[in-house]
Structure formats: structure tokens, C-alpha cells
Amino acid sequence: HARIVQGVRTGELTKAETKNVVRKEKEVKQDVREAKADGVVTGAERREIRRDQNKASRTIYRTKHNNRERN
Known about the structure:
Layout: H1 2-10, H2 15-36, H3 43-64
């Protein structure tokens, strides 16, 4: 979340890019909530969450460094 806010503040993220990365972050949080819902986070759920977090992190990095500027 802090990386997204920083990207908006510095103009590295456009409005559309911000909307996209925020949506991905929400999806990761939803996965965590679903995994915790039954009280047990299995190894498979943990791997899926970690994979989704890494994917979201890569998306944030690539989006911040794609040389587009916010108007």
C-alpha cells in the first residue's frame, strides 16, 4: 500500500494504473480472508497467497517504472 501511495505522490502511477494495482492488492487481501475463514491456512493456500503477493509486487514495480507520468 505504501508503495502505491508513494507512486501516486511522485506521479509515477497514472489514475488508471493506480486503479489496477489497488484492485490487485484487494484481490490478495480477499485471498487471505478466504484462507483464514475456516481457521486453518493450509500450505497450498499459503503458496497461493505468496504467489499472488509476488505477482502484485511485480505489477507495482513494473507499473511504477514504465515511464508514464500522471498528468
